[in-house]
Design brief:
Blueprint: E1 3-4, E2 7-8, H1 15-19, H2 39-51, H3 61-67, H4 74-84, E3 97-99, E4 115-117, E5 152-157, E6 166-171, E7 176-181, E8 184-189, E9 195-197, E10 206-208, E11 218-222, E12 229-235, E13 238-243, E14 245-247, E15 251-253, E16 260-266, E17 269-275, E18 283-288, E19 294-295, E20 301-305, E21 313-317, E22 321-323, E23 328-333, E24 338-339, E25 344-346, E26 351-361, E27 365-373, E28 376-377, E29 379-380, E30 383-384, E31 386-390, E32 398-408, E33 413-422, E34 427-441
Parallel strand pairs: 3-4, 9-10
Antiparallel strand pairs: 1-2, 5-6, 6-7, 7-8, 8-9, 11-12, 12-13, 13-16, 14-15, 16-17, 17-18, 18-19, 20-23, 20-34, 21-34, 22-33, 24-25, 25-33, 26-32, 26-34, 27-28, 27-31, 27-33, 29-30
């Protein structure tokens, strides 16, 4: 008769006997399973409770051991690992920290400790951005840099080609702040608050220096609705203030439909310049040198005379008003205003003009001279202004002149007339070498 331990296979065996070890060294194949009451049910229940709906990959002891790394001291390993982690309250790091990367990268200055926040995405969308946010719902936020008094604190801006192409740096030994763009320092604020653009040693509250030495250092003043700007710049040994024109390798106007104006101060000279619409730079209109001498190279003026040599003459009829013929321009400024075809000067701008004329005529005559404006004698209060000369001795040619200060309006034209009263002849001679006229704007 087969036995399971000391229990007959024909006897009833309950699970308690199995649990207590009453059944041992049994060969299940020799057991009459119908005699073992409830054994199969109990085993099935025990196995089910042990598995407890575990996933297929973790429902055996071997699978559980593999999941724990076959580490018999798994609990100790986990406890030791947790001890290495920084606490949530006041964490302290002893090495480089990477967020989004397992290899925190050292960048500028060979940094000893690095916090590297890396977004390695490549979709070029906002999901690939990286940023640090400091947030307070009711108070201020701040970012503090603390370094020894003989060192500097910096914020670097880099790209894949250059890790420090842009820099904001506070230098503690000099208590100055410098700003770098395109890998070169562009602006500095020194310890006294002086600002230097293009210079690291600003001598005044605001100093602008052309770092390229191309005479183009400028301040620009403009309005968002304006088509022109005002520029202040340094050139050679002077300063230039211009409106609607700037120099950058060549002069150019902001708006060619607007005129250009300019003031230059340099090397003891003051220069005023203007130009009409369409010009790219101003022309000198008034210059004051270091001795105080004033010149106006563009002041409307002309000097004219009859063409021909000293002995040439012209014959004019007597007893009528004749217009003196000037067909040679010796000097002219402020435009081509003298008309040699009609022997007249066209007034370019309104103002007071000094007018002069001179001629030598034959003897034995009485002479009258007058300045004509727009074809009629110049009048004041309705009276014509004329001058009279006579040569009763008739011994030599007579010098007659036209001199005066007159007010003309832009568009007027001026002519020189004279009347010859013959004594011994019906005509008179004017000597070319002694004739001439001039006009100049006074104010």
């Amino acid at each position: 008769m087969p036995y399971i331990g000391n229990v007959s296979a024909f006897d009833s065996v309950d699970t308690e006997q199995i649990k207590d070890g009453a059944v041992s060294d049994a060969k299940i194949s020799d057991v009459d399973h119908s005699k073992v009451t409830g054994l199969a049910t109990e085993i099935s229940t025990a196995v089910s409770n042990l598995v407890d709906s575990s996933p297929e990959s973790l429902n055996t002891l071997n699978e559980l051991a593999a999941a724990l790394g076959d580490d018999a001291a798994f609990s100790t390993t986990v406890t030791n690992s947790i001890a290495l982690k920084a606490p949530l309250a006041s964490p302290s790091f002893t090495g480089n920290v990477g967020v989004g990367t397992s290899s925190p990268a050292v960048q500028n200055n060979g940094a000893g400790l690095v916090l590297d926040i890396a977004n390695t995405g490549s979709s070029s969308t906002t999901a690939d951005n990286a940023e640090i946010v400091l947030r307070s719902s009711s108070r201020y936020t701040g970012l503090t840099f603390i370094t020894p008094t003989d060192k500097a604190s910096s914020v670097y801006f880099g790209d894949t080609a250059d890790s420090d192409v842009g820099i904001i740096q506070y230098n503690h030994p000099t208590d100055s702040m410098a700003f770098t763009t395109n890998a070169s320092e562009r602006m500095r604020i020194d310890s006294s608050g002086k600002v230097g653009i293009g210079t690291s040693s600003p001598p005044k509250r605001l100093s602008v220096q052309d770092i390229n030495n191309s005479n183009t250092a400028q301040l620009r003043l403009t309005d968002s609705t304006a088509t022109t700007s005002t520029y202040l710049g340094q050139f050679s040994n002077g300063t230039r203030l211009t409106n609607n024109a700037t120099y950058s390798g060549g002069w150019a106007a902001d708006d060619t439909s607007v005129g250009v104006s300019q003031i230059e101060l340099g090397d003891g000279v003051v220069i005023l310049g203007t130009a009409a619409a369409g010009a790219s730079m101003a022309a000198t209109r008034l210059s004051i040198n270091s001795d105080g001498a004033v010149t106006m190279p563009s002041q409307p003026a002309c000097v004219v005379r009859p063409s021909g040599g000293w002995q040439n003459t012209s014959v004019y009829p007597a007893a009528i008003w004749n217009k003196l013929k000037f067909d040679y321009i010796g000097h002219q400024k402020g435009g081509s205003n003298f008309d040699t075809t009609n022997n007249r000067y066209n007034i370019p701008v309104s103002g007071y003009y000094a007018v002069h004329g001179q001629a030598y005529t034959g003897s034995h005559t009485y002479h009258h001279t007058a300045i004509y404006v727009n074809g009629s004698p110049y009048t004041i209060g309705g009276n014509s202004i004329t001058m009279s000369y006579n040569d009763p001795q008739g011994s030599s040619p007579l010098n007659i002149t036209w001199d005066g200060t007159y007010y003309f309006s832009a568009g007027d034209y001026v002519e020189w007339f004279f009347l010859l009263s013959a004594v011994a002849s019906t005509s008179q001679i004017v000597y070319h070498g002694h004739a001439g006229a001039s006009v100049i704007l006074l104010s």
